[in-house]
C-alpha cells in the first residue's frame, strides 16, 4: 500500500500540480520553482525514512511555501473575495499542508499527534482534495458565468477542505461536517461539468475526459462520506487501506488527471 500511496503522491507532484499551474495566472518562475522542488520531493518517497529523505522533502516543502507565498501576494494584489478567486487561492495555498506533512513523514516522526502513515495520506489528500478540487471549482465557476450553483461550488470546495483539515484537530464529527460540505461542492462541480461545460465541447476526447472527471466524483465522494460517517458514529466503513485503493486512486486518476487534461485541451484563459 505504501507503493500505491507513493505513486498517487508522485502523480500530484509531477503531473497534476504542474499542469494545473498553467491554468492559473502564475509567473514562469513560480512554475519552475515547483518543478525544482517536486522532483526531489518525489525522490524522497522512495528512500527509507531518515535524514536523506527528510532533506529532499524540505526542498519540496520550500516549493509549496513559495506557492503559498504567491497566493498571499495575489490576494494582496487583487484584494478580491470573489468565489472564483477564493477557489484559486485555496488551490495555491493547500499544497503547503502537504509539504509540511511530507517533511515529518519522511523524517519518521509524528506531527501534532498524527503517525507517519496518516501524514502520507495527508500529503496525497492536499494535492487532490486541496489543489485539484479547488482549481476545478474555480475553472467551472469561471466557465459557467459565476451563476449561483457555480458560485456555491467555488465556495463549498475550499470551505469543505478547510473544515476537513480543522476536523483533524477538533474531532471526527467536525471532520464529518467538512466531508459533507466538501462532497456537496465536489458533486456540484461534477454536475456543472457534465451539464454545462461538457455541452459546449465538440472535441470527442475532451468530452470523454470531462465526463470521466465528473462521473467519478459520484462514487469517490460517496466513499469519503461513508468513511467520515463511520469514523464519527462507529458504523461499519471502509478501512484507510481500502480508501487509498479506491477513493484515492479514482480521485487522482479519474477526477484530477482527466479533469486537468481536459481543461488544458480547452485552453481557457488562466484564472
Number of strands: 0
The end-to-end distance, rounded to whole angstroms, is: 36 Å
Assembly category: single chain
Overall mean confidence score, pLDDT: 91
Give the SSE layout.
Blueprint: H1 2-21, H2 28-44, H3 51-78, H4 83-93, H5 95-107, H6 116-143, H7 148-170, H8 172-197, H9 204-233, H10 240-266
Helix pairs in contact: 1-2, 1-6, 1-10, 2-3, 3-4, 3-5, 4-6, 4-7, 5-6, 6-7, 6-8, 6-10, 7-8, 8-9, 9-10
What does this molecule look like?
By secondary structure, the protein is mainly α. It has one domain. The chain is 82% helix and 0% strand. It contains ten helices and no strands. The longest helix has 30 residues. The chain is globular and about 50 Å long. The N and C termini lie far apart (36 Å).
Overview in brief:
The chain is mostly helical and 271 residues long.
Give the tags.
single chain; 271 residues; mainly alpha; globular
Amino acid at each position: 500500500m505504501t507503493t500505491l500511496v507513493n505513486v498517487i503522491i508522485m502523480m500530484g507532484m509531477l503531473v497534476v500540480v504542474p499542469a494545473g499551474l498553467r491554468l492559473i495566472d502564475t509567473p514562469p518562475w513560480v512554475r519552475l520553482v515547483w518543478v525544482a522542488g517536486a522532483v526531489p520531493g518525489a525522490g524522497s518517497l522512495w528512500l527509507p525514512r531518515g535524514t536523506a529523505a527528510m532533506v529532499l522533502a524540505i526542498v519540496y516543502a520550500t516549493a509549496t511555501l513559495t506557492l503559498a507565498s504567491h497566493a498571499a501576494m495575489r490576494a494582496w494584489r487583487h484584494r478580491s473575495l470573489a468565489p472564483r478567486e477564493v477557489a484559486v487561492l485555496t488551490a495555491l495555498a493547500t499544497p503547503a499542508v502537504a509539504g509540511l506533512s511530507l517533511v515529518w513523514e519522511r523524517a519518521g516522526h509524528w506531527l501534532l499527534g498524527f503517525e507517519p502513515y496518516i501524514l502520507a495520506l495527508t500529503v496525497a489528500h492536499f494535492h487532490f482534495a486541496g489543489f485539484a478540487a479547488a482549481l476545478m471549482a474555480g475553472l467551472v465557476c469561471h466557465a459557467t458565468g459565476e451563476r449561483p450553483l457555480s458560485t456555491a461550488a467555488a465556495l463549498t470546495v475550499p470551505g469543505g477542505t478547510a473544515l476537513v483539515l480543522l476536523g483533524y484537530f477538533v474531532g471526527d464529527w467536525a471532520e464529518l461536517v467538512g466531508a459533507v460540505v466538501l462532497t456537496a461542492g465536489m458533486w456540484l462541480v461534477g454536475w456543472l461539468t457534465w451539464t454545462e461545460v461538457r455541452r459546449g465541447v465538440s472535441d470527442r476526447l475532451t468530452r470523454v475526459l470531462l465526463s470521466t472527471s465528473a462521473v467519478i466524483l459520484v462514487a469517490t465522494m460517496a466513499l469519503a462520506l461513508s468513511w467520515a460517517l463511520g469514523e464519527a458514529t462507529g458504523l461499519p466503513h471502509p478501512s484507510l487501506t481500502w480508501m487509498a485503493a479506491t477513493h484515492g486512486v479514482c480521485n487522482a486518476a479519474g477526477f484530477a488527471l482527466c479533469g486537468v487534461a481536459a481543461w488544458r485541451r480547452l485552453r481557457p484563459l488562466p484564472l
